Amino acid sequence: MSYFFIVSVFVLGTIIGSFLNVVILRYGKKTLRGRSFCPSCKKILTPCDLIPLFSFLFLRGRCRYCRVPISFQYFIVEVLSGLLFVLIFLRFSFPEDIVYIVLSLVIWSVLLVITVYDFYHKIIPDGLVSLFILFSFLTIFLRVPILHFLTFPYVLDVFAGLILFLPFFLLWLVSNGRWIGLGDGKLAIGIGFLLGLKQGVSAIIFGFWIGAVVSLTLIVVERLLEKRALLFSSKTLTMKSEIPFAPFLILGTAIAFFLRLSLFSFTL
User: Fold this and answer.
1) Lowest mean pLDDT among 69-78, 140-149, 212-221
2) Quick check: 246 and 183 in contact, CB under 8 A?
3) 218 exposure class (CB count in 10 Å sphere: 0-12, 13-18, 19+)
4) Average pLDDT taken over every residue of the chain
5) pTM for the complete prediction?
6) What is each CA distance from 262 to 80, 141, 160, 189, 252, in whole angstroms?
7) HEC profile for the chain?
8) Could you tell me if 222 and 231 are in contact, meaning their C-beta atoms sit under 8 angstroms apart?
9) Tens digits of per-residue pLDDT, 135-157?
10) How far apart are CA 132 and CA 22, in angstroms?
């Protein structure tokens, strides 16, 4: 794969990332249509203001018209989208795996939106997680022979999503939603369909490990500073009430998916 091709894929990813920023900001509102504008001065943005990455850098992170700082989210999402596109093309063979590539591009674009949306709103929209589940389920047909759907060990991958959902559902049911949100369980369905049982369980474990490390680190920092108001609200810090869990699950999924890692070496 040539460097020119990789750069082209990255540029395409940043363009899609620019659109994903619009989805993140406008999801749940009446429409995704309409010209982009500065949220501060309401000035309609020109094409020169919307060039992925470069506009943010050239404008030094400020609106051209009112000079109010622009959220760093725009730049980060565009970079991450570009990197995801490159990683997907590097993971598969082009054009032999074009169907898998297209499905993966859609899946990881949706996951990127879910990650940022949950980070800000602490909720996973049903519409987005449903798309993730649907496209992840379609990948099963590329991994598992249809005639073997109900034969061992393939059946474990076919039903991996439902298997991974069960522990989340039980935690949600027992705690009445206090320990974990049902949206995380729905996300686990898509993870299972996308990765299969062994890698899916590994991705969930990775997510819990990362979430635990981040949460404990924030608690330690918070207590060292002894200024809770500067970091969080007055509520007790928990992984779900203060920090959305979906980004950790998705990061764990990325580790298992792109690095092809599994914590289980046995053959089912």
Assistant:
1) 140-149
2) yes
3) middle
4) 85
5) 0.86
6) 24, 21, 15, 18, 11
7) CCHHHHHHHHHHHHHHHHHHHHHHHHCCCCCCCCCCECCCCCCECCHHHHCCCHHHHHCCCECCCCCCECCCHHHHHHHHHHHHHHHHHHHCCCCCCHHHHHHHHHHHHHHHHHHHHHHHHCCCCHHHHHHHHHHHHHHHHHHCCHHHCCCCCHHHHHCHHHHHHHHHHHHHHHHCCCCCCHHHHHHHHHHHHHHHHHHHHHHHHHHHHHHHHHHHHHHHHHHHHCCHHHHCCCCCCCCCCCCCCHHHHHHHHHHHHHCCCCCCCCCC
8) yes
9) 999 999 888 777 767 777 778 88
10) 18
Domain coordinates in residue numbering, the chain? 1-91, 92-268
pLDDT digits (tens, 9 = 90+) for 115-139: 999 988 888 999 999 999 999 999 9
45 contacts 35 by C-beta, under 8 angstroms: yes
Condensed to tens digits (0 to 9), the pLDDT of residues 8-41 reads 999 999 999 999 998 998 887 756 666 777 777 7
- CA-to-CA distance for 29 and 120, rounded, in angstroms? 15
Work out the angle between the directed axes of helices 98-121 and 3-26 (0-180°, nearest 10).
Answer: 40
Mean pLDDT of 244-263: 93
Indicate the length of the chain as a whole number. 268
Structure tokens at 67: 């000079």
Asked whether the predicted pLDDT for residue 110 surpasses 70, the reply is yes
Tokens linked to 63: 């609106």
